[in-house]
Amino acid sequence: MTRLVQLITLFICLLSGSVPSAHAGTPVSDRIAVEAGVKAELSKDLALPYAPDAALSGRTCLDGRPTKEFQGDIMEYWVNLECPYCGIEEPLRAQRENPGMCIVVRHSPSDNYGESLKKALSFEALLRFSPNAAHSFWNAVVPRTPLGVPKPYEAALQTALQDAAIVPEDFADSLQQVAPVVGADIIASQSRITSTPTWILDGIRFPACDFTASQVPLALELAHKARADDADAKERIVQMITRGLLNESVL
Question: What is the CATH number of the domain that holds 27?
């Protein structure tokens, strides 16, 4: 186990040069200013075509299905595994209840949180062996509330390896394979991801929106309509994101 921790630390050293600053969402008192900013970012997103296939090549959905040749809606769930609002339970339930969707986890760890990068690497490495083990690990290590105390990282990883009967040497090999994947996420997040969680639905960023399982398909439908230039859908998205940024209920 010590060797695995050393390997993860090594990968962190290799990636640390590209780790972005903190991505915690911050409430803003001036609603008008927030809305103006949200509208500007929405316009940027809608001005760009969205083709997730290339960026997500080789990735898997939360339920383990590969993104390659997936027929349906691919969406991105950007997280920091030390963010108390970045839970796995609701996205996983949304994935299981909507087989026509593929939710891909992407990582925006922060150098303000000492173990967030280690957790991201471990989650991706576990996902290659067992989605269930990866989900359990995530659920154990992420704080459930701002004051929540997660299970210690090393203990959670040891439990996941034992439950999935993963040989430590094989896990070390998997860490090597996923390090470039997490590194690519970190680089991509620097220009687009300002808070976690952030959903990207049909190319539209929904920052600070910790959707429930039932809200995910509703938000996706709005994103499709906004992409088709539906003015009402655009306004509803602006209001949803604004409420999320102000720590209000998004729906």
Answer: 3.40.30.10
